[in-house]
Structure formats: structure tokens, C-alpha cells
């Protein structure tokens, strides 16, 4: 906890608790620490609704929390569930729900119970997918989302020790059948890890290798940050320029990592594109023709002789979210949109302005905003009600249908190696 801090004396904390052994151990340990240090703690359980028994399991976690004197909240993933990539989509929904709850309650630190075994599984999974050194660093001790820090204090502790801790405390836990379902890639990797262990290659050894890559990644991210300070301009409308000559002259590995990070950020992706695809694009930028236009990772990359410009590919934006006054929400994984508390009366939504939207309001936009590239304008967040565009914050546009601004701001949230501390090795 000391390494992951500092934590202000008055800080409120949240912990993700599914009811499994790992998260129940995290709950026990963290509740003891919070009590000893005078901090408040809330356990968050996400009911995905993917299994009939999930609601009962969430209630059971609530009963266990009550016995420990810990506040408990159940967050439900509502709406239609995906038919494919179920675990990936469930994970995304889980973090989005917990982050939104934390932001609403002014909680900056969210604890999750990833273990040394999870670290080893992540390393093997990414190795099987051809990840480069950055991916093989697996999970950091602390990572940053738009509105919360995610902290993993158990990355150096094996799952078996945590189960033993629960048994010693007389604490039961829930067994998730999904953890043994071989339809999921993560479960198949877990089984492979068990096979390696029988042959003398332990989870601790694999996680130790990830730690070596983590230190390498941290060092490289420092270099990426220095190159970014020299060569990159990031605009509040969500696009970026790279000095092409500086990119060409830089260390190729560092320059490619910078390009990859910018693609992930600009494209609204949690992870960078696969290394092979980024490498192909990078070669074209370094030795290719003077003008190039490519798409990768949800964004457009367009190069001229002097610069490389990246922007969100507007035709791939389908994200639309309802939002009401006083709320803030992450839209398209790029912008933190906040509505004024005074605008509570009627429901509105946030969606991409689009080409048609731009054409509808272009006559009312002043010349001060014409410098924003056309395709970038199409990907800006717009407030709509019943199909009508009410406000586009970045263009200083407000419809005559409203008497005051609805949107307070829409901030481009930079999550990349050059916007914060480097990879935080456990």
C-alpha cells in the first residue's frame, strides 16, 4: 500500500468484489487496512446478469460485507448482452460501471484483486497474441482511467496464498463456473499455466519475467515522453500532429511506440494496435512516399512531407449515451463530457456530430473554428434531443432551441505513456 500511495488521510476507497477467492481476500485485507488508517471503504459488486445465480451471489457478497462493517453497492449491467467476446465486453462494462460510480461519489482509488497468477496468465495470453515488450509487461501496480486510479496490490501474491488466508479467517467465497469454462481464452491459458507448473515453471517465474518487461517498458515510456515533448502537438478537439522529420530521426523503437500510443489514444482504444500492424504503418511513414493516408485502430493517419496527423475515423463512431444534468460521462472513450446541473429537465444524448450534423449547423459556425479539419469536426461530441443538435462545445455552437448551455465542457482525455507517470511496476 505504501508503494501504491500516497493516500490522503481523508480518502475514501472502493474495492471491486465479485465474491471469488481473490476479491474476498482483497476485501478482508483492505478492510483491515482502512479500519487501521481511519479511511472509509465501499465494496462494489457488478451483476453482469450473464448467469441466473449472479444476483444471489451479489446479495451474498453484501451479507459478507455487512459482517465486516463495509458498505456495499451492487452495480447492474443492463441492456442487451453480447453474443461474442463475452468476457471482454463484460470486463469493459464492469470497469465503466465502477468508474462511473466512483466519479459520482468523488472516490479516486479503485482496488482490484489481480494476483500473481493473473499476471502470469496475462503474460502468456499476450505472448500467444504476438505482443511486443510493452504488452508483455502485463499489468501495472497502478493504472489510470479517465476518472479513477486502478490499484492492484496483490500482483506479487499467488492465488493459493489468498485462498489459504480466507480459510484461516473462516471466510467462504463464491466459485465462478466461468473460471473453468474452456470456451474462454483466458481459461485455456490458465490451464496451460498449470501444465507449465508441473514441469517446473511456476506462475511466480512467469510473473517475474513480466516484471522484467515492466521495467523495460517504464524506461521506454520515459523516452517516449521526451520524444512526445519534442515532436507532438495534441489538440483539445481530439487529434494530434507529429513532426515527421523528428519521427524519422528518432530511435525507431521509441518512435514506433509513440506512434502506437497516439493511435490508441486518438482512436479511443484501450490497447494499442498489434505490433505487426503498427510496424507496417511505421515503415510507410519513414521510407514511404511523401503523402500517405492509412487507417488503423479506429483512427486515420495522414502524412505530408512535414507532419503526420492522426484523427478519429468518424465513420466508425457509433457510441451514443444518454446523459442528464449534473452528470459526467466518458464518450467514445475519448472525451469526458460534463453537463451543467441546471439542465436536468429533459433527457439528452451525446453522439458524434457527423458529416450531416456539421452541414446542418455549418452556417452558424464562426470562422474561428474553420481551422479544425473537416473529418475531425465530424467526430466531435454533440448534444442532441429528439434528433436535433442542441450544442457542440468545441465549436461554441448552441441551438436557438435552448436558452443556455447544456454542456459544461468536453475534455479530451489523454491516456498514454507521455501524459502521466511511466508504467508502474509491481
Structure summary:
This protein is α+β, with helices and mostly antiparallel strands. Helix content is 40%, strand content 20%.
Features:
Rossmann fold, Uridine Diphospho-n-acetylenolpyruvylglucosamine Reductase, domain 3, six-stranded mixed sheet, five-stranded antiparallel sheet, alpha+beta, single chain, 3 domains, 426 residues
What does this structure look like?
This protein is α+β, with helices and mostly antiparallel strands. The chain has three domains: 13-201, Rossmann fold; 226-312, Uridine Diphospho-n-acetylenolpyruvylglucosamine Reductase, domain 3 (2-Layer Sandwich); 319-412, no CATH class. The chain has 13 helices and 19 strands. It has helices at residues 21-37, 54-68, 86-104, 116-128, 133-136, 159-169, 185-198, 203-231, 244-249, 252-266, 275-287, 354-361, 374-378; strands spanning 13-16, 41-47, 71-76, 109-111, 142-144, 149-151, 232-234, 240-243, 292-296, 299-303, 307-312, 321-323, 328-331, 335-339, 348-352, 381-385, 388-392, 397-398, 407-412. A six-stranded mixed sheet has the order 3-2-1-4-6-5, with helices on both faces. Strands 7-8-11-10-9 form a five-stranded antiparallel sheet. It has a five-stranded antiparallel sheet with strand order 12-15-16-17-18, with helices on one face. Strand 13 (328-331) and strand 14 (335-339) form a beta hairpin. It is globular, with a radius of gyration of 23 Å. 40% of the residues are buried. The model has no long low-confidence stretch (mean pLDDT 91).
Amino acid at each position: 500500500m505504501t508503494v501504491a500511495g500516497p493516500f490522503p488521510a481523508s480518502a475514501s476507497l472502493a474495492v471491486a468484489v465479485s465474491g471469488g477467492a481473490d476479491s474476498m481476500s482483497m476485501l478482508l485485507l483492505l478492510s483491515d487496512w482502512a479500519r487501521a488508517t481511519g479511511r472509509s471503504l465501499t465494496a462494489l459488486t457488478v451483476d453482469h446478469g450473464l448467469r441466473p445465480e449472479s444476483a444471489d451471489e451479489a446479495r451474498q457478497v453484501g451479507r459478507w460485507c455487512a459482517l465486516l462493517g463495509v458498505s456495499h453497492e451492487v452495480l447492474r449491467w443492463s441492456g442487451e448482452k453480447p453474443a461474442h467476446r463475452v468476457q471482454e465486453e463484460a470486463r469493459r462494462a464492469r470497469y465503466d460501471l465502477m468508474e462511473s460510480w466512483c466519479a459520482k461519489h468523488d472516490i479516486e482509488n479503485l482496488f482490484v484483486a489481480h494476483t500473481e497468477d493473473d499476471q502470469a496468465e496475462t503474460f502468456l495470453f499476450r505472448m500467444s497474441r504476438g505482443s511486443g515488450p510493452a504488452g508483455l509487461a502485463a499489468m501495472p501496480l497502478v493504472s489510470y482511467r479517465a476518472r479513477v486510479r486502478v490499484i492492484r496490490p496483490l500482483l506479487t501474491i499467488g492465488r493459493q496464498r489468498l485462498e489459504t488466508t480466507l480459510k484461516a479467517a473462516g471466510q467462504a467465497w463464491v466459485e465462478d463456473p466461468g473460471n473453468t469454462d474452456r470456451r474462454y481464452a483466458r481459461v485455456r491459458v490458465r490451464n496451460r499455466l498449470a501444465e507449465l507448473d508441473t514441469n517446473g515453471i511456476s506462475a511466480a517465474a512467469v510473473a517475474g519475467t513480466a516484471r522484467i518487461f515492466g521495467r523495460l517498458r517504464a524506461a521506454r515510456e520515459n523516452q517516449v515522453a521526451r520524444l512526445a515533448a519534442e515532436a507532438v502537438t495534441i489538440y483539445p478537439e481530439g487529434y494530434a500532429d507529429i513532426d515527421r522529420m523528428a519521427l524519422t530521426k528518432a530511435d525507431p523503437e521509441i518512435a514506433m511506440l509513440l506512434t502506437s500510443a497516439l493511435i490508441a489514444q486518438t482512436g479511443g482504444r484501450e490497447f494499442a494496435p498489434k505490433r505487426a500492424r503498427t510496424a507496417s504503418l511505421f515503415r510507410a511513414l519513414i521510407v514511404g512516399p511523401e503523402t500517405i493516408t492509412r487507417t488503423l485502430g479506429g483512427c486515420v493517419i495522414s502524412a505530408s512531407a512535414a507532419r503526420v496527423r492522426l484523427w478519429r475515423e468518424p465513420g466508425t463512431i457509433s457510441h451514443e449515451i444518454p446523459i442528464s444534468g449534473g452528470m459526467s460521462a466518458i464518450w467514445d472513450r475519448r472525451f469526458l463530457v460534463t453537463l451543467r446541473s441546471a439542465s436536468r429537465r429533459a433527457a439528452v444524448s451525446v453522439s458524434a456530430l457527423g458529416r450531416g450534423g456539421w452541414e446542418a449547423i455549418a452556417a452558424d459556425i464562426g470562422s474561428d473554428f474553420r481551422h479544425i479539419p473537416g473529418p475531425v469536426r465530424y467526430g466531435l461530441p454533440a448534444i442532441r434531443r429528439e434528433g436535433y443538435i442542441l450544442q457542440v462545445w468545441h465549436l461554441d455552437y448552441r441551438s436557438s432551441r435552448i436558452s443556455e448551455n447544456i454542456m459544461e465542457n468536453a475534455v479530451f482525455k489523454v491516456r498514454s505513456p507521455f501524459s502521466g507517470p511511466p508504467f508502474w511496476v509491481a
